[in-house]
Design a protein that fits this description.
Length: about 1050
């Protein structure tokens, strides 16, 4: 038996009452479904019609082109109302009455009801669904799957079916039918998942694969029939059965769930394991269905809403065909595929993707270009482009259960990239379990911000949908990270509230009686100086329309005094009307405009305008103590928008570092998520890259002196007892036991942390940077601070400095005063540099001309920190080696001629660095490599370029075993050339863990007097070192870090 519409109205009435009381309606929905289960499961019940009635907003394929005004006329004709009743029907337009059109229809039919019909003639859900379908079928904006060929815009003949329905409804049924036609039940909103699950537990999962009510219900019913015919005990449809349901061409696949990250810390809390960090493309979503057997005619494009928009995006079909090689030999698509991408506009002249508002000039809407009157015509060098980022189906194989990394590899094989036509999304892989994950994500995000990108998208290396029962939180979800989501980064400034409008449907969503305003028009002042000097009539340009939350709207009504007057009677202000079509017209003007502090995600040129306005604006706060004469001017807004949207011509590392600092402060309590790692003795610190570690300004290095008692107090303040080793050498590196904090090292029993230099670095509160402040100003202000003339670069300190200092302690006098230490230390550095130059010529076998830096065993501990371009030597960030092994001071070396390098050592010889010659920071170093490096591409050319081939041990583990028993001190108290171990922490993480664990075990057997530290770096540091030493590379960029060594530093062994 068909389902009567009156039963659905019972549910709608009860749920509406709960919604107005701000209570959940899930329990009422479940109880209703249990009560009418026999009707819902009846064979002649159209379950798709029921879902379309409860979830009208999901039927994006149906477009009625009916708003409140046009529906008012339909009701008047259907009920044959006279003039007095028509005026009563239009009462919803008056603010303050709390009525909408549906309420007015109910009042009229309550007073003069329709004739009562027998039970069998009562309107059913199926009849209402059929009537709405017939109206949508004659509207050209509807989806092609339901549209008839002669569809235009539904006129009176097409809408007559609605008039007939109104004559059969009761007052309550007519009220909900009115809201159903308008697709607006506010404040009632059903949870789509709960509605579908109440009908059948497996239906929500099927709808994810095939997002169509009719088709998904058909699949569900087929599975039930198959289960009934199965052996006993298998009548229940298990989640494992869903893996056999494949996506279907021409039926949109549901989208993954999306989360918004409010900070880097919040983002990492939602991540686990490997994440694909992709640049968010500011375009229109496309889900592309390709039937290779039909060529161009076999391509269907669905929008984010689920509507088939192939007709609108017909200019993209040729680009898709070429990029996939459809109809050509060698195409990777044999039969069919489904891909996801983003439609954008590309400029061949500027060689970049253009802002979002350019799309409307190139994409028609059912053959019409909408809101383009003020836009410049499309230029010959502009065209559409597709950016692919996922694949869901390939040649009959469903990829919904395949991990993201594998899906992307398939996507790379399928797509033929063509710059400016079809490309793959830019991305990088970040292991969120790695201690450097926060720093890597922060650097990537800062890079996107400085490049004026929209943001980042993080995707776990998981299946697109996970239908297993062991699902964990935040798996199979995507995370959006935008600047506007974080703290105050999205705040723009103050705007004047110049007027307001009223929308009866929106007013229902507020629990506020006699509400008169629902939409507020904000504008910029055009004559600020005239108003302040001569009390001129203020003139405003209306730029946006905003809405308020219920709490903020109550505050505005209670405390604001806007002095409203009808727009046509306003003489106190001059208003330049808002551009574009506004669904809610301005009804009142405020002669005493209040002030809103607005925020937005970006700037945009709205339809029918040629100037910038706020994109997705929202009200951050209401200022009752500010005057409208101090709001932003129109010119200031345009300048702000130009600066925010125009990408810089040259990359500015200072802007990048300043944004990294701001992102650190944006984490909860202003403490970076990785600060806990920085404040402990660990071999994997994540330092702030706000300070450059190389002294490019030419100033002398700075040395901090901290007394012995200061060292102990610093350690005690962090809950760490200072060991006696602190009193001997302040620069002693962390012990190997602290490698347990690094995920590259296996878990082991934690020991008391000792001797990390960060524990003793004096800290200073960081200057807070506000949203409106120029990112460069923070850096430039620090550049003006004086630097100490006696600062020593951290590049001259390595893990073996402590060894040498400890070995020769008895031969060096100790001074008790800091001033004597400072002068003696500076002199000692020069002497040591000269000694090394002499020893280099005397002993060729030692090969220790650039070995560890010399440090005195001071009672006043000397802490060497990295240099800084900005001279801020008081920042308390973590300090790690800026180079693995210290070079002797360059002033003690003789200058080297580049011609000598090139002539004496050809580039291909591999015995001398082709970039820096003997000045290379890796010169005469012993390089240890794991065995798995024989299978890695790209490493050997880098080693050859830096002249490291003669000094390579290809098996680090075998070298460690051999040298564990064959170690002897050289005459100068050293143990040989400095060592550096290159590993691969990205592709060979497990192998690297095993290698480091084994090497640490072997090294424990070496006597402490002869044991030296081995610096561990990822081999990718060689790429950054090449940039650093190559004089031809003018833009020195190290993934946001201030020197080439910090990004890929792993620790010490």
């Amino acid at each position: 038996m068909p389902l009567p519409f009156s039963l659905v109205c019972d549910l709608l009435e009860e749920s509406y009452a709960l919604a107005t009381a701000h209570k959940s309606n899930n329990q009422a929905l479940t109880a209703w479904c249990v009560q009418h289960r026999s009707r819902i499961n009846a064979p002649d019940t159209n379950l798709a019609a029921l879902l379309s009635t409860l979830l009208p907003e999901k039927r994006t394929d149906r477009v009625y082109c009916i708003q409140a005004n046009s529906l008012e006329r339909i009701v008047g004709r259907g009920l044959m109302l006279g003039s007095s009743r028509l005026r009563e029907l239009a009462l919803y337009k008056q603010p303050g009455l709390g009525l909408d059109l549906a309420d007015c229809v109910e009042r009229i039919l309550t007073a003069t009801p329709n004739p009562t019909l027998p039970e069998k003639l009562r309107v059913t859900v199926e009849e209402i669904d059929e009537a709405l379908h017939s109206v949508a079928a004659k509207v050209k904006w509807s989806s092609p799957s339901i549209r008839v060929p002669e569809a235009t815009v539904a006129g009176p003949p097409a809408r007559s079916v609605l008039e007939a329905v109104y004559r059969r409804l009761t007052a309550r049924e007519a009220k909900w039918f009115t809201r159903l036609v308008l697709k607006d039940f506010q404040p009632l909103v059903f949870d789509a998942y709960q509605v579908c699950r109440s009908c059948d537990p497996v239906l929500p999962s099927i709808l994810k694969i095939r997002e169509d009510f009719t088709i998904a219900i058909g699949v569900m019913q087929r599975l039930k029939r198959e289960m009934r015919s199965s052996p006993p005990g298998t009548s229940h449809i298990g989640r494992e059965c869903l893996s056999y349901i494949k996506p279907q061409l021409s039926v949109k696949v549901g989208r993954q769930q999306w989360f918004k990250a409010r900070s880097v810390k919040h983002c990492l809390n939602m991540c686990t394991g490997l994440m694909s960090v992709e640049a968010k493309v500011d375009g229109e979503y496309c889900q592309i269905h390709v039937d290779a057997s039909k060529g161009r005619r076999g391509i269907r494009i669905f929008s984010k809403s689920g509507k088939d928009s192939t007709e609108d995006r017909v200019r993209l079909i040729g680009i898709i065909t070429d990029s996939l090689g459809i109809g050509r030999a060698g195409s990777s698509i044999k039969t069919e595929c489904i891909l996801e991408g983003e439609l954008v506009v590309y400029s061949e002249l500027e060689k970049k993707i253009l802002p979002f508002h350019h799309i409307r000039k190139h994409v028609a809407r059912r053959g019409r270009f909408i809101n383009t009157e003020q836009d410049s015509p499309p230029r010959p060098h502009e065209h559409l482009m597709i950016v692919y980022y996922d694949i869901l189906l390939l040649d009959g194989r469903s990829l919904l259960g395949v991990k993201h990394s594998e899906r992307f590899r398939l996507l790379e094989k399928v797509v033929r990239c063509d710059r400016g036509q079809a490309e793959l999304v830019q991305r990088q892989i970040i292991n969120t379990n790695h201690p450097m994950a926060a720093s890597a994500l922060r650097n990537a995000f800062a890079k996107v911000i400085t490049d004026r990108g929209e943001g980042l998208v993080l995707k776990a290396d998981q299946p697109y949908f996970n239908f297993s029962d062991d699902r964990r939180p935040f798996t199979n979800h995507c995370i959006k990270l935008k600047k506007g989501y974080i703290g105050r980064f999205g705040e723009v400034g103050d705007f004047a509230v110049v007027g307001a409008g009223f929308n009866a449907a929106k007013a229902r969503s507020y629990n506020i009686g006699s509400l008169k305003w629902t939409h507020f028009y904000v504008g910029c002042i055009d004559n600020r100086e005239e108003v302040k000097r001569w009390n001129a009539t203020p003139a405003f340009t209306v730029v946006n329309v905003v809405e308020l939350g219920e709490a903020m709207l109550k505050t505005f009504i209670l405390h604001a005094d806007p002095k409203p007057v009808p727009v046509e009677e306003n003489t106190e202000t001059k208003l330049k009307p808002a551009a574009g079509a506004q669904t809610t017209p301005m009804t009142v003007a405020f002669t005493n405009p209040p002030v809103f502090d607005l925020r937005c995600f970006n700037f945009d040129k709205a339809g029918c305008t040629n100037w910038w306005s706020l994109r997705f604006p929202s009200v951050a706060k209401i200022h009752f103590d500010r005057d409208f004469s101090d709001v932003l001017s129109f010119d200031e807004l345009q300048k702000m928008a130009e600066d925010a949207t125009a990408a810089p011509e040259l990359e500015d590392s200072r802007d990048n570092l300043a944004w990294i600092a701001k992102l650190e402060q944006a984490d909860p309590r202003g403490l970076a998520v990785d600060a806990a790692t920085q404040l402990t003795a660990t071999t994997m610190p994540t330092p702030s890259p706000r300070r450059a570690s190389h002294n490019s300004s030419g100033s002398l290095p700075l040395i901090r002196h901290v007394t012995e008692s200061s060292l102990e107090r610093s350690a005690e303040s962090l809950g760490i007892s200072a060991s006696p080793s602190h009193k001997h050498v302040a620069s002693q590196p962390p012990p190997t036991t602290n490698l347990a904090k690094n995920p590259l090292f296996p878990d082991r029993k934690r020991r008391r942390a000792t001797a990390s230099p960060i524990l003793f670095s004096p800290s200073k509160k960081r200057r807070r940077s506000f949203v409106g402040e120029n990112p460069r100003s923070t850096v430039q202000s620090r550049e003006s601070e004086p630097e100490s003339p006696t600062r020593r670069p951290l590049g001259e300190v390595n893990g073996n400095s402590a060894q040498q200092a400890r070995i020769s302690t008895s031969h060096r006098p100790t001074h008790s005063h800091a001033s004597e230490n400072q002068s003696t230390f500076a002199h000692a550095v020069d002497c040591v540099g000269k000694e090394r130059d002499t020893n280099r010529h005397k002993s060729a076998t030692s090969k220790s001309m650039e070995s560890s830096s010399y440090f005195r065993p001071l009672h006043d501990g000397v802490i060497a920190i990295p240099g800084s371009e900005d001279g801020d030597g008081t920042d308390g960030d973590a300090t790690i080696p800026s180079s693995p092994l210290a070079c002797t001071r360059r002033r003690d070396r003789e200058p080297t001629d580049e011609k000598t390098h090139s002539n004496g050592n050809p580039e291909g010889s591999g015995t001398s660095c082709r970039y820096a010659g003997r000045e290379c920071q890796l010169a005469n170093r012993l390089v240890l490599l794991p065995l798995y490096f024989s299978n890695l591409e790209g490493v050997e050319p880098l080693l050859r370029a830096h002249g490291l081939l003669p000094n390579i041990a290809r098996d680090a583990e075998a070298w460690a075993k051999k040298n564990a028993s064959d170690v002897s001190l050289l005459p100068d108290g050293q143990t040989g050339p400095n060592k550096i171990l290159f590993v691969d922490t990205v592709e060979k993480e497990l192998e690297t863990k095993a290698l480091l664990c084994e090497m640490e075990r072997i090294r424990k057997g070496v006597l402490e007097e002869t044991r030296e530290w081995i610096s561990v770096y990822d081999w990718r540091v060689l790429n950054h070192l090449t940039i650093y030493e190559d004089g031809k590379t003018t833009k020195k960029y190290y993934d946001g870090f201030c020197d080439p060594w910090r990004r890929w530093y792993c620790g010490l062994v």
